[in-house]
Model the fold of this input.
Amino acid sequence: MDDSQLTTYMVSGNSMNPLLCNGDRISVLPMPIYKVGDIVVATHPIQTDLIIVKRIELITSDGRLRLRGANSEESTDSFGLVSQNKIIGKMISKLD
Amino acid sequence: MNSEPIAHAHCDGPCGVYDPAAARINAEAVLSMTKKLIALKMPTSLDQVAILTYQNTLSRYVAIKEEQAQKCKDELLILWTDYFKPKHLEANPELHDIFWKAAKLCSSCKVEVSQAHAEELMAAVKNIHEIFWKSKDRNVEWMTAS
Done:
């Protein structure tokens, strides 16, 4: 693992409850490939200045991803499919 | 003070940009490839170049049909699960059945080379187009690229 690419993010919001809570700190690392179920940090496809943390719900046959929060009460819509180049990295660990 | 970057986990930050036109373009491509496959003539000789050309063209048509049918299904599922809300179901009680059948047609169009099912898929997407725009109180004309 190339630790030089490891970045720490602070989570804001509750759409990833109970996996992640508001204020949690997570380590994120870019990966060559991603799979369904990965928790990833990504650039929002429309609001490009917004960094989001979501789980990969679906990967289409042409490699696009559907991201969704873990908490269905707080995460009811999606923004459609996003391309892999929007993904900054996968959550490797939650920091204490 | 913490200087770590923030990763937002509020709602999904929906852009609100939904349009059945994406599914329509995919469905049109499925119909087009189906027609091309049906019209494709097998080589009448054992000429290697002719056979290779035929197989290459056939493979490309099949691959595009497969890909576009899957994209069509993806786009329909996004509309179904993300755009449409319970209030829309009240206005269109048959909504789930319409989307379920449309998604099934996408699968049929992958499995088969059926112009009838490809045309049914186009009709299903047109129906969804009309329901979608009516739900937004807008009158958007149905038009096709081909």
